[in-house]
Design brief:
alpha/beta
Length: 229
């Protein structure tokens, strides 16, 4: 069974993968990256039984006939957060002024793809609004998805560094710590939604996995990772 998913849902899928594979006799082949990239892979014909993206993207795929209407289920909403390497000093970022000062003080700013990742697109707009895109261009460290951005930040030896991505990708990455969500004026809360693909090889099994991922059995791991309901 093939899954294409935004990185925010990676830990939820992995939490049930072994048990699902054992009880159903079907291996899960899951790819996690920026939601735009996952959508593009699906549209290009990549094998996919279940897709997990943002609610608007799933709605587009229903309209285009790539996702079965009525199969949509929400995993919950995820806010966009700010992180530093674990153990590093945590600057205040709760206001526009504090966030701007923290970014200006960083030698490296880590975040996901500003063209195809939900958090990356949003954070680049935050940088533009703060007037920091050009002044800090040489310090921007862009990665295909939030998980890879956070892993790179954790391994950085650049000195003071900071990162921004979905809260779940921060919480699920070793070596980094969430210091706060973005200030209220820049808040982004994303509804991650799944859908069964119309080309699913085993639609009944895909539906069973969909119910598991979005159901009460996975609510604790979703809530622990940063999903809100």
């Amino acid at each position: 069974m093939h899954i294409l998913s935004g990185g925010a849902a990676a830990a939820v899928v992995r939490a049930v993968q072994a048990a699902f594979e054992s009880s159903n006799g079907e291996r899960i082949d899951a790819t996690f990256s920026a939601v735009g990239q996952m959508r593009d892979q699906l549209l290009a014909g990549a094998p996919c039984d279940l897709v997990i993206l943002t609610r608007p993207l799933i709605a587009q795929l229903v309209d285009s006939g790539h996702v079965r209407a009525g199969s949509e289920r929400s995993l919950g909403r995820v806010k966009t957060g700010v992180a530093v390497p674990r153990g590093a000093p945590a600057p205040a970022v709760g206001t526009r002024e504090q966030l701007k000062a923290a970014l200006q003080a960083a030698r490296g700013i880590y975040f996901p793809d500003p063209d195809k990742a939900t958090a990356g697109i949003h954070f680049m707009n935050v940088l533009k609004t703060l007037g920091l895109q050009e002044p800090l261009r040489e310090r921007l460290r862009v990665f295909p998805n939030g998980a890879s951005a956070m892993a790179a930040m954790a391994a950085s030896s650049d000195g003071p560094v900071i990162g921004c991505t979905q809260v779940t990708e921060i919480n699920y990455t070793e070596g980094v710590q969430l210091i706060d969500v973005l200030p209220a004026e820049f808040e982004l809360s994303t509804d991650y939604t799944l859908g069964v693909c119309t080309r699913a090889r085993q639609p009944e099994l895909a539906e069973r996995l969909a119910q598991l991922l979005a159901g009460p059995a996975t609510e604790p791991v979703r809530r622990q990772g940063g999903f809100e309901f």
